[in-house]
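debug: dumping io for the single-chain case to check the tokenizer round-trip. Nothing else runs in this session.
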Amino acid sequence: MPLLARDFYVLAPDLIGFGNSAAPSRESFEYTFENLTKNVAGFLAALKVDQYFLHVFDYGAPIGFRLAMRQPERVLGIVSQNGNIYQEGLGPKWAERAKYWANPTPEPRAQYESAFAPETIKGQYLTGEKPGTVGPDGFP
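debug: decoded output
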């Protein structure tokens, strides 16, 4: 982002429940890509951003692609970094999770709690990186 900021205005909104943003309860906010897309669209409208390049990554990809499909005339280009746009791109790792998505009962939900444990998230950011090169603001 700092390199892009030399030549572009860079906007990197936190998604609700991600990064440094608040995480409302599931009873007060429905965590769907549709709702997150509406939130980002509102962010862009509030800032009066009429055209933009998208850099989509991971969970932000479905949001960016929804924005692009709804108003393609606003999108000047897309850079996709690990952003799946098709179900096959999820791979076999997600087959079991898809069963949970279809039937989100407490038992399988408990199996995935470790995926969001602080040490798991921290490992995703730090594994393979030189010590001291990743800022601590993106993980617990």
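debug: round-trip ok. The helical segments are 33-46, 61-70, 95-102, 106-111, 118-126.
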